[in-house]
Amino acid sequence: MFDIRREAEVSYAFIERNFNLLKRYLNWEILFFTYSIVNALTIGLIMVGRGSAQDVLYLVIGALIWGFLSIMMREVSDAITWERWEGTIEYTFMAPIYRITHLVGSCFFAILYGLLRTGIVLAVMPLFFREHIDLSQANWLTMAVTVLVASLSFIGIGLMAAIFPLLSPEKGQAANGILESVILLISGVYYEIEVLPEWLQLFSRISPATYTLRSIRAAMLENSSIADQAHNLILLLIIGIITIPLGFWIFHLGEQYAKRAGRLKRSG
Questions:
Q1: Which one has a higher pLDDT value, 268 or 245?
Q2: pLDDT value of position 170
Q3: Is residue 266 part of a domain?
Q4: Which of 49, 97, 109, 263 has its C-alpha lying 20 to 30 A from 231's C-alpha?
């Protein structure tokens, strides 16, 4: 019988375990975090002296939001990689728990970790762009709602991407990187999607990152309200409603195949 309280406690256990793993590899996390800051700085500095303060903020927002979205997408799939690294993947997948419980815990960890890292990077940015970044007119409520709704879509994509390291420990992470690069290309992270070829713009319309960036940029640059961004938010919600069940289903199929093919081991 499905016990909601028990499953919630198990999901929390996966969240706690992942944070403990971060502590174990804290030196590497500091290195990756430093890279996130340097990457955002590099992107923002491209426009310093060449454009307006709004242009600088446009690029910085792209770097920050893409960093958050890619963390969410990557951390869900990294949950499988962690299992292989620790040599626990067979035990976890054979444990008497619902797979959705395991994955929900991983998804919540991805959201919390993404918010934590992005929040720290955002706090650091004004130290380097004091004269170019003014967030006094930003609509933080619109931005928060957009991030929350967008998280649903990228959790769904992350669940789909998680089958790559599940099925191929050798090349799975590389496949995730390719997927991230494709989404980065078509979503207008650092440029307007109108500069893309028309045939490629068609793919931009199904990318949740496109609508996420539009709404957050409007909120931070134009003080746009939730009502103003209702169209983008509804599209993001629809994409999330589609991708999350689809992601669970695809992962379920991948898990069944991995068990049949004997891929639930550290070496694959």
A1: 245
A2: 67
A3: no
A4: 109
Number of structural domains (the chain) is 1
In a domain, 12, yes or no: yes
3-class DSSP state for residue 98? coil
In a domain, 41, yes or no: yes
State how far the Cα of 234 lies from the Cα of 183, in Å rounded to an integer: 20
Mean pLDDT of 73-94: 76
Backbone Cα Rg of the chain: 19
Query: Buried b / exposed e across 61-72, counting CB within 10 Å, b at 16+?
Result: bbbbbbbbbbbb
Percent of the chain topping pLDDT 90: 16
Residues 73, 229: Cα–Cα separation, whole Å: 23
Distances (CA, A) of 1 to 5, 7, 113: 12, 11, 32
Residue at 257: amino acid letter: Y
- 185 in a structural domain: yes
Helices 172-186 and 208-222 cross at an angle (nearest 10°) of 50
Element (H, E) at 231: helix 230-261
> How far apart are alpha carbons 199 and 41 in whole angstroms?
32
Structure tokens belonging to residue 32? 């990756």
Cα–Cα distance list, 144 to 141, 156, 231 (Å): 5, 19, 16
